[in-house]
Design a protein that fits this description.
single chain, alpha+beta, 5-stranded antiparallel sheet, 22 helices
C-alpha cells in the first residue's frame, strides 16, 4: 500500500456508497490474486480472459513419449490439408454471397461458379465430419465443466444449465448467487467497519485509563457497565506505550517489538487511540467542570437556542389582579405585556496534545492536568460572563437599567456601605419591590452577593449569615467543612450512634467491592492507623507494630452493613474486630472499627502471598482512594 486516506464520514468508491470510518487505498501494488469459490465481497466479480487451446490434439513438450510422437505424426498424415480446406471454404462463401441476391436461373447460377472452387464430395464430407467432432467435443467439455462447478450440490442448476446451453461462467454466477442467498446475512467487508474490532476491549482500555486518571468508578459504570469497569481495574497499571500497542492491535496495524517515533505515528494513525484519549480527556474535563461550583446557575435560569444568531427571547407577563365573576358568569378580560431580552450563543475552546516525552515517560497525569484545568476554566467562564453582564447593569425592555431607582432595587450613597444597618435597608428595599400592577412581588431574598474583599465582613455580621447564603464574585472556592461533618446528618428520631465507623485497609478500599458487600455504607475520607503494620497472609492483615502506619479509608456502616461485613470477613472465626483510633487528613483522631485475623488464622497463613487478582484489587483501591500503595509485589516480612 503506497497511498491511503482515512475517511471518517462516507464516500462513493467505485460506484458504491461506503459508510466510514474506513481507509481508502488510492495507490497500491498488486502482489497476489487468490481465486476462491465464494468471495467476501458480493459486489466484486472476476473473469478469466486467458485460455488454453489444443490444436489437432497436438501436445508440445520435451517429455513426449516416442509412442505419442508416432500417433501425432500418423494423425497429421491422415488429416486433410487445412490450408486447402480453408481456401475452398472461403471461395465457396464468396460465390454464394455474389449469386444469392440475383436469384437467376439454375443455368446462369452454375455458369457464375468457377470450376476451380468446386469441392469434391470427399472434401465436403471430411469438413462436415470434423465440424461434428469439434461440436461434440465442445459440448462434452461444457457439460463436464458444468458438472464440476455444481459438484452434485446444485442438481436443479446443473439440469437447467445443460438443457439451456449455459456457459460455465453463467453457471458459476448462478451457483454463487444461490450460496449467498442461503448463508446468513453479515457484513464481511474488511474495508468498512462500523467500529474497530474488539469493541469491548476498547471500552475496557477507556475504563482503565479513566480510572487511572481518577474518574469515579460509579460514573464509569453508567457508561460502560460493571463488567467492563471491573475488567478496566485490572488494566489500570497499563503504561502508555502498551496502550499504543494495544490500539494498533485493535486496528490491525503491524507493530515492532521496539518503540520509536514510527510506532507513535502508526498508533496515532489508528482509529482507536485518538478516540480513547479523547473520551478519557472529556470525562476528566466533565468531572472537573461538575466539581467546580458555579454561582451563575443559582441566580439565573437556563434556556435553549437553536443557532448562533442573536435571538430575542420573549416572556409574557399578566397585568391586572383577578376580578370577581359576575352573577351571570361573565369573566372579565385580562391583559398581557411582552418582555424581551437578547441572547446569543458563543463557542469557547482550546486544543492540547499528548507529547512524545509524555508517552515515553508514561506521564498520563501531566496530560490530564490540561483537561482538568480546562474544566475548571469552563465553570469559571460561566461566572465571568454572567457577572460581566450583571455588573454592566444592562438596559431592560422598559428602557431603564436593571438596577435603578425606578425599579426600587438600588440603594446608593454613603449609607449603602456594607453593614448591618445597610443590609437591613437593602432587604427592606428588596421586599418593597412591586410588579407592573403596583403589587409587591412577594419574593424573599435568598443570596447575599458580595465581592471577595467583603466576604469576611459579611460573614461576621450578626443575623446575616444564617438567613442568607453568602457568595463571592469570582471567588467560587468552597469552604472545606470539618472532616467529621462529612458524616450524614441523621434523620429526625434517629441517633448518630447507629452509624458505625469502619477502617478499611484491604480490598474494601475498592468502591465497587465495598458497596457490593455493604450497599448502604457511606464513604468518608482517607485515614491512617498508627502503630500498626500491613501484613501479607494470603489476604491483608494488620499487626501491632510501634512506629509503623497502615493507610486506609474510613466508612460509616449501618447495622445491616455491619452484619453483611461480618459474614464476608468470617467474623469471629477468621477475623476478629475491635475499636482503634485512626487519624484523619486534618489531624483529628477518630474511633473506628478494624478487622484483624485471629491467632489461629495467622498461624495457618503466615508466609502466604497475596493472589495476584487480590493484589490488583487492593492496588487499584488504593489508587482510587488516593492513598499510598502498599500492595506491590511480596516484600520480606519483618516478624521481630
Amino acid at each position: 500500500m503506497k497511498e491511503c486516506e482515512l475517511v471518517k464520514s462516507s464516500r462513493t468508491v467505485n460506484g458504491r456508497e461506503i459508510e466510514g470510518p474506513f481507509y481508502h487505498v488510492t495507490k497500491s501494488t498488486l502482489r497476489e490474486v487468490s481465486v476462491v469459490a465464494v468471495g467476501a465481497d458480493v459486489c466484486t466479480n472476476m473473469k478469466v480472459t486467458a485460455k488454453f487451446n489444443l490444436s489437432n490434439n497436438k501436445i508440445e513438450g520435451d517429455n513426449m513419449s516416442e509412442e505419442n510422437k508416432k500417433n501425432v505424426a500418423a494423425d497429421e498424415n491422415t488429416q486433410p490439408d487445412p490450408e486447402k480446406k480453408a481456401a475452398t471454404t472461403v471461395e465457396e462463401t464468396d460465390a454464394q454471397q455474389k449469386t444469392a441476391p440475383k436469384k437467376e436461373p439454375k443455368q446462369a447460377k452454375a455458369e457464375a461458379v468457377p470450376a476451380a472452387v468446386t469441392a469434391s464430395a470427399t472434401d465436403v464430407s471430411a469438413t462436415a465430419k470434423e465440424a461434428a467432432v469439434s461440436a461434440v467435443k465442445a459440448e462434452r467439455e461444457r457439460v463436464s465443466a458444468i458438472q464440476g462447478i455444481c459438484n452434485g450440490e446444485f442438481p436443479e442448476i446443473e439440469k437447467q444449465a445443460i438443457a439451456s446451453g449455459w456457459t460455465p461462467e453463467v453457471v458459476t454466477k448462478k451457483v454463487l448467487e444461490t450460496i449467498r442467498a442461503e448463508r446468513p446475512a453479515a457484513s464481511v467487508n474488511i474495508s468498512v467497519k462500523a467500529k474497530p474490532e474488539g469493541g469491548e476491549m476498547r471500552k475496557t482500555l477507556e475504563a482503565a485509563m479513566s480510572l487511572r486518571c481518577g474518574v469515579d468508578a460509579d460514573t464509569l459504570e453508567k457508561s460502560y457497565g460493571a463488567q467492563t469497569v471491573e475488567a478496566g481495574m485490572k488494566e489500570m497499571d497499563m503504561p502508555l506505550k502498551q496502550l499504543l500497542v494495544e490500539c494498533m492491535k485493535l486496528d490491525g496495524i503491524p507493530y515492532n517489538r521496539g518503540f520509536d517515533n514510527e510506532t507513535i505515528r502508526a498508533a496515532f494513525s489508528s482509529v482507536s487511540l485518538p478516540g480513547i484519549l479523547s473520551n478519557v480527556a472529556n470525562k476528566k474535563l466533565l468531572q472537573s467542570y461538575e466539581a467546580q461550583p458555579v454561582i451563575a446557575t443559582k441566580l439565573c435560569s437556563t434556556g435553549d437556542l437553536n443557532d448562533f444568531k442573536e435571538n430575542d427571547r420573549f416572556r409574557l407577563t399578566d397585568v391586572g389582579d383577578l376580578l370577581p365573576i359576575a352573577a351571570d358568569g361573565e369573566i372579565k378580560d385580562g391583559g398581557l405585556i411582552e418582555e424581551t431580552a437578547k441572547n446569543q450563543l458563543e463557542t469557547y475552546g482550546k486544543k492540547f496534545c499528548l507529547t512524545r516525552k509524555m508517552i515515553i515517560n508514561d506521564d498520563l497525569g501531566a496530560f490530564m492536568k490540561v483537561p482538568t484545568a480546562m474544566g475548571n476554566r469552563a465553570a469559571r467562564l460561566i461566572d465571568q460572563l454572567f457577572f460581566s453582564r450583571l455588573l454592566a447593569n444592562p438596559t431592560q425592555s422598559d428602557g431603564k437599567a436593571l438596577f435603578s431607582n425606578a425599579h426600587k432595587n438600588l440603594l446608593g450613597g454613603a449609607s449603602s456601605a456594607l453593614s448591618a444597618d445597610s443590609l437591613k435597608k437593602a432587604i427592606q428595599l428588596f421586599l418593597d419591590q412591586v410588579d407592573a400592577d403596583g403589587q409587591p412581588i412577594a419574593v424573599e431574598p435568598k443570596y447575599l452577593l458580595v465581592p471577595t474583599a467583603l466576604k469576611h465582613l459579611a460573614g461576621q455580621m450578626p443575623g446575616a449569615t444564617p438567613a442568607y447564603q453568602i457568595m463571592s464574585i469570582f471567588d467560587i472556592t468552597r469552604l472545606i467543612p470539618n472532616i467529621i461533618s462529612r458524616k450524614p446528618k441523621p434523620q429526625k428520631g434517629r441517633k448518630m450512634k447507629r452509624l458505625c465507623p469502619y477502617f478499611a485497609y484491604g480490598s474494601n478500599l475498592l468502591p465497587n467491592r465495598m458497596f457490593r458487600r455493604c450497599p448502604t455504607a457511606i464513604a468518608c475520607c482517607p485515614a491512617v492507623l498508627n502503630n500498626y503494620r500491613l501484613t501479607e497472609r494470603l489476604y491483608a492483615d494488620v499487626d501491632y507494630c510501634p512506629g509503623s502506619q497502615v493507610y486506609g479509608y474510613l466508612y460509616f456502616l449501618r447495622p445491616a452493613d455491619l452484619a453483611a461485613l461480618d459474614r464476608y470477613e468470617g467474623y469471629p472465626r477468621t477475623y476478629k474486630r475491635y475499636t482503634v483510633n485512626v487519624v484523619l487528613d486534618d489531624g483529628t483522631e477518630y474511633p473506628a472499627l478494624v478487622y484483624e485475623m485471629t491467632e489461629e488464622t495467622k498461624a495457618a497463613r503466615n508466609g502466604m502471598a497475596y493472589p495476584e487478582e487480590y493484589r490488583i484489587l487492593c492496588r487499584n483501591g488504593a489508587r482510587l482512594r488516593k492513598i499510598p500503595n502498599s500492595f506491590t509485589r511480596k516484600r520480606k516480612q519483618n516478624h521481630e
